[in-house]
Write a structure and sequence with these properties.
Radius of gyration: 23 Å
Shape: globular
Protein name: ATP synthase subunit a
Distance between the termini: 53 Å
Main location: membrane
GO molecular function: hydrolase activity; proton-transporting ATP synthase activity, rotational mechanism
Number of strands: 0
Oligomer: single chain
InterPro entries: ATP_synth_F0_asu, ATP_synth_F0_asu_bact/mt, F0_ATP_A_sf
Number of domains: 1
Membrane topology: Multi-pass membrane protein
Length: 275
């Protein structure tokens, strides 16, 4: 149901252009920078991307709020889904990577990152929204900075500032003759590039997913409404490809949320293991 509705919403988005006689309208970067429709000209301006972020944040809070309000000793299906998501983040990400005892203080933030990225990613295939809330760099940066701060906090709490910084840039057992080479590499790798790579990985996957879906929608619309009769049948092919990409994008959205939370746990674990 969701996939067919998503396709219909995508076609509806490009159909007006097709009907206007312009034919195939490929997606552009303008999709990610819409005009503000509320509080324009202020730091609190709301455009389509911000609206999607607010909607998905509210959906996340409502989803687990309903689950908590209806919690029973014998869980129903909805409660099972809520507990499965929470349990996956706690057991399969935090505890598996960091360790059951050491992970306990960091389970809430890792779970929040996993669920937050998941819900904001999945908006790319929801009818009427049709764009991932993480496909503009602001949200990936926010999640990456949060992960980076927790990584620093865990290391400093466990080893002190000096001990944490030393172990981050100078692995144990490295000969002094190699310090001049190893220290800059480890500094860039561990203290600079981690939030950058977290941000770029998430952003690139969500942007590319939007482009693929939008291209399929636009091609289907153009073939159905503008192509010669002999070519209209190709619209069925692009429609099928769009359906496959919707399912693939759901998989990618989930996978990227898992990878982001997993790497956050890996970074926290490495800071705790520093010595």
């Amino acid at each position: 149901m969701m996939t067919s509705a998503t396709l219909a919403a995508g076609l509806a988005a490009v159909a007006p252009a097709a009907g206007g006689g312009e034919g195939f309208e490929p997606p552009t970067l303008a999709d990610f920078f819409p005009e503000a429709f509320l509080l324009a000209g202020t730091p609190f301006a709301i455009n389509r991307i911000m609206m999607v972020r607010l909607i998905m944040t509210a959906a996340l809070v409502l989803f687990f709020g309903i689950g908590a309000a209806r919690a029973k000793v014998v869980p129903g299906r909805f409660q099972n889904v809520c507990e499965m998501l929470l349990g996956f983040a706690r057991v399969n990400i935090a505890e598996e990577i960091i360790g059951e005892r050491r992970a306990k203080p960091y389970v809430p933030i890792i779970t929040t990152i996993f669920l937050g990225v998941l819900f904001l990613n999945i908006s790319g295939v929801i009818p009427g929204l049709n764009i991932a809330a993480t496909s503009v760099i602001g949200m990936p940066i926010v999640f990456a900075v949060v992960a980076y701060v927790v990584f620093f906090y865990a290391g400093i709490k466990s080893h002190g500032l000096g001990g944490f910084l030393r172990s981050s840039v100078l692995p144990a057992g490295v000969p002094k003759a190699l310090w001049i080479l190893i220290i800059p590499i480890e500094f860039l790798s561990n203290l600079i590039m981690r939030p950058v790579t977290l941000t770029i990985r998430l952003l690139a996957n969500m942007v590319s997913g939007h482009f693929l879906l939008a291209l399929c929608y636009a091609a289907t619309s153009a073939l159905f409404f503008h192509a010669a009769a002999a070519l209209k049948g190709l619209g069925v092919v692009t429609f099928g490809v769009a359906l496959a990409f919707v399912l693939f994008e759901v998989f990618v959205a989930t996978l990227q949320a898992y990878i982001f939370a997993l790497l956050t746990a890996v970074y926290i674990g490495s800071s705790l293991d520093s010595h």
